[in-house]
Amino acid sequence: MPERSMIEISRVTRSYGAFKALDETSLTIREGEFFSLLGPSGCGKTTLLRMIAGFDTPTSGSISVDGQPMDGIPANRRPTNMVFQSYAIFPHLNVEQNVCYGLKRLRLGADEEKRRVEEALSQVSLTGLGKRGATELSGGQRQRVALARALVMRPKVLLLDEPLSALDKKLREQMQVELRRLQQAVGITFILVTHDQYEALAMSDRIAVMFGGKIAQVASPKEIYQRPVNCQVADFLGGMNFVKAEIVEENGASMILDTPGFGRVKTDKPAAFVRNGKGATLGIRPERLRVLWDDATDKYEVAGKVVDRHYFGEITHLVIEIPGFDKPLSVTETNNFGADDIPVGAPIRLAYDPDALVALAD
Amino acid sequence: MTAPAEGIAALPVVRKQRNPVLQSEAARGLGLISPTFIYAVIFLVIPIVLVIANSFWTQNYLTIDRTFTLENYRIALTDPIYRDLLMRSLWISLLVSFFTVVLAYPIAFFISFHGGKHKGLWLFLITIPFWTSYLLRVMSWKVILGYNGVLNATLMGLGITNGPSDAFLYNTSAVVITLTHAWATFAVLPIFVSLEKIDRSLVEAATDLGDGPLRRFLRITLPLSAPGIISATLIVMIPTVGDFVTPRLVGGKDGVMIANAIQAQFGKAANWPLGAALSVTTMAVVTAMAASVVLVIRMAARRIR
Ligand SMILES: Nc1ncnc2c1ncn2[C@@H]1O[C@H](COP(=O)(O)OP(=O)(O)OP(=O)(O)O)[C@@H](O)[C@H]1O
Ligand SMILES: [Mg+2]
């Protein structure tokens, strides 16, 4: 895949009075990439997306799409198209008329127009529903129409604002797969706004995690999940155990941390790390800890006591107190070996992979 | 064996319990609508029935002959005077509703799309002129359009005309102008409501798909506000056909409308059955015209793609 940049956002700020919905944000999105903007409610995802689409203007900073600065270019003349959260299907038009809405202006001729509408409808598996009225569609179908209506324009960038949030869980998971497949088939740059971390992890090439109008980290799903830069990102992407640690040594790109349970560990130093006294935080995901049964041993292990247990069908969630840790550790264990039968109060030993331990900026 | 028997026996018991509930609900429902219903019967159904009955009778000097006749309808439909008056009334009401909607639409559009937080205040402000009596407003149009009126003075002052003209008052256009002004506010409200109901993301979606302000207005906003345009048209058209104050005050000889003739039959001419037949004819024709206007607007809205 060519690493050409498609969208350049440089130092964009959007203020509402004294409040900054977006604060000096810079970001590069590559051509043909499935990019997600992930963050909690109110962090500025929609604001950023609407500024790319041209429905909102930055207070300062600039946005360019495909090398072209977008300042002063109205939304109707930008090479972007959007799938709205509410889908915004035109209620007075049928499916076909909705899909060919934007094509009409291009005067392609009846045949070409029809061909492109058919193509778009088949891309979203709606073939044969062209004559259906806009008000006679299910939620999933409406979403597909919105998608087809945008795709038929062959935009350079497709913007999606929480397109799946109105669907039920099963349909949402199905659409995630379809959307990802569709993006790979058409090769258009997709920018997806979501507050669902699983959605972002499952679909994206890269993710930007945002908090309070700022981007905290931009990385691939795997990297962002395994190597979060700070506690906030780590926590937002899923369960994480945070252990207070002491900094023994700090140099260039790595550091050595000391904890009562894990001992001395050498880890990468996160980019956003700011030394604040002697302490730091060490994180490990609950599924990277493993229960040691019976006499099994491991090179790296910690011992403790089960204080709580939650059953979730395929997995069990154990809460384990380790002497010397300020907080108990969470462990998720599949139920293959009877983790759901471990009694509360039992002593337990856990194995861990030192590579799974990450140093986190606070 | 006993269990199913019990089950069967239990059914009617359940039914019996539900029936009184339904009955009382129905009774309560009837009780709730009965005041409205009685009101509608007394003030709507009885007068209309009386008018229709009258239209089939004959005036015999001071008494009314109650034998069935279609003579009144023959006169109402064939006498050129009444036919012309009816045609003129329909034409005037059509013009008035057209100009009213054309005038009211931009106002409603501005308030709905650019009214910001003060939409209510704007709506309130445009109703203020309507706190004065209708007669006063008609009179002020006389002042504006009259021989020594504001319009003539302005035109002369600007050197466009040499002397005062009597062409502005006492004719059809004076009636149209006065009625349009009178009804504009009433047309603003239904149009405003239908514009408010349009999801703004639809307008954004149209923009996103490449439409500039004019195109998205024509393709999205206008067709979706068709219900408001239809109700505004009806609200204005139906009462203006039957207006008789305005033509009497500013219409002159050219501006006389069908309601003036109906009033004459119930008044000076003292021929109630003919007046009733004229009323019923007018009602029927207005209904037909209103229906066709609704159809035309609907079709126009559907044609825009
Ligand atoms: N017109 C406005 N006036 C004032 N503040 C606004 C306006 N629009 C958005 N904001 C604020 O800007 C912040 C970011 O809003 P934005 O809609 O981008 O959030 P979001 O990340 O999309 O959240 P969500 O997941 O809830 O959609 C919010 O705190 C919001 O209150
Ligand atoms: Mg949002």
From TrEMBL, chain A:
GO biological process: putrescine transport
InterPro entries: AAA+_ATPase, ABC_SmlMolc_Importer, ABC_transporter-like_ATP-bd, ABC_transporter-like_CS, Mo/tungstate-bd_C_term_dom, P-loop_NTPase, PotA-like, Transp-assoc_OB_typ2
Assigned keywords, A-Z: ATP-binding, Cell membrane, Membrane, Nucleotide-binding, Translocase, Transport
Residue ranges of the TM segments: none
Highest taxon of source: Bacteria
Matching SUPFAM superfamilies: MOP-like, P-loop containing nucleoside triphosphate hydrolases
Any Gene Ontology CC annotation: ATP-binding cassette (ABC) transporter complex
NCBIfam families referenced in this protein's UniProt entry, alphabetically: potA
Quaternary assembly: The complex is composed of two ATP-binding proteins (PotA), two transmembrane proteins (PotB and PotC) and a solute-binding protein (PotD).
Name the record gives this protein: Spermidine/putrescine import ATP-binding protein PotA
Provenance organism: Phyllobacterium bourgognense
TrEMBL record, chain B:
Gene Ontology CC terms, in alphabetical order: plasma membrane
Residues covered by the ABC transmembrane type-1 domain: 86-295
Compartments it resides in: Cell membrane
Membrane topology qualifier: Multi-pass membrane protein
Keywords on record: Cell membrane, Membrane, Transmembrane, Transmembrane helix, Transport
InterPro entries from the UniProt entry: MetI-like (IPR000515), MetI-like_sf (IPR035906)
UniProt-listed GO biological process terms: transmembrane transport
PROSITE patterns: ABC_TM1
SUPFAM superfamilies for the chain: MetI-like (SSF161098)
Transmembrane feature ranges: 37-57, 90-113, 119-136, 143-161, 173-195, 216-238, 276-297
Keyword Ribonucleoprotein: no
Similarity comment: family membership: Belongs to the binding-protein-dependent transport system permease family. CysTW subfamily.
Protein name, per record: Spermidine/putrescine transport system permease protein
Organism of derivation: Phyllobacterium bourgognense
Top-level taxonomy: Bacteria, Pseudomonadati, Pseudomonadota, Alphaproteobacteria, Hyphomicrobiales
